[in-house]
Amino acid sequence: MVQAAATAKWRRAALLMTARLGLTDLTERLHPVASERAALDLRGALDGRVPPLRKQVVFLIPLVGPDQVGDWKAVSDRLKATLHCMRAQNDPHWQAIICCQQKPDLPDDRRIHFLPFADPTPGNDKWRKLSALYEQLDRLDTGPCYVMSFDADDLMRQGLVKEMLRRQAPGGYLVQQGLVMDDSTGVIALADQPTMKELGQKPFWKLCGSCASLAHDPDIPESALFLREMTQHEHRMFPYLARLAQRTLSPISFASVLYVLNHGENFGARRGRVGFKTRFVERFKIEDPEELARIAAGFPLPEEPDQRESIKAG
User: Fold this and answer.
1) Domains in the chain, CATH or no CATH each
2) pTM of the model
3) By C-alpha distance, which of 211, 215, 91, 96 is closest to 163?
4) What is the pLDDT of residues 145-199, one digit of tens each?
5) N or C: which end of the chain has fewer CB within 10 A?
6) d(CA 178, CA 189)
7) Which residues does 137 contact at the CB level (< 8 Å), separation at least 6?
């Protein structure tokens, strides 16, 4: 399984229009791909439903296998840092599932689950792991919830879970404002919507896959299927597909996720797609010491000194 291709922007606009107007015949003539078909099916299933109260957030984490990396301990340490940020959240109502060929050393926490992955197909398996995670989703006792795919080397800022559950956005959330750090230099940049003064800016969801948390209803079969098909695409497709499914995403109110580049085992580096992000960090770096201190306070590191040093050193 390879990553699904993005839909051309003109076709996205056309499908959104025909779906909104209920022009079923025209929609079919646009030949929706699997993710769009799943979005349209969910749209129909949601028609007239009142959004239920969502009481938890579920994070789905595809973890690269030890045979595909140069330093499995470094990968495991970064996962521990990711999970530490989750465990430090001031709202404890979340669960996480990690999918990998080998079980890493995980914290003793009933909210954290491991899903073995045994598919021997060669090549990049991130999307196959995501598919397996979404197929596992309805086996958890979640009730109506928010579901967010989260990369194993990204960090979550304090307060993210609390905001999602407090606001109860009907469709879910989008990380429009986020942070990007070049681990080789320690420089941190803010990613956000471009303005007239900063036309080169980019919203966080265009840079990182840990960017969308969608409302999920286990009693609607079309819900999990849509989530699975959506995440077979790159993250730039997420807001469009959510709109097509009538799951319009609301921006999180603060820079809630930290994306770390150039730490040695980045997925993007294996695809040769990190260079422009490195330049982005340098261009939009944060230099205010007080702001950097506030950022550091929001991303607690694990307590083990050797692990803290390995994360800082990259």
Assistant:
1) 57-313 (3.90.550)
2) 0.91
3) 91
4) 999 999 999 999 999 999 999 999 999 999 999 999 999 899 999 999 887 667 7
5) N
6) 9
7) 58, 60, 97, 147, 216, 218, 224, 227
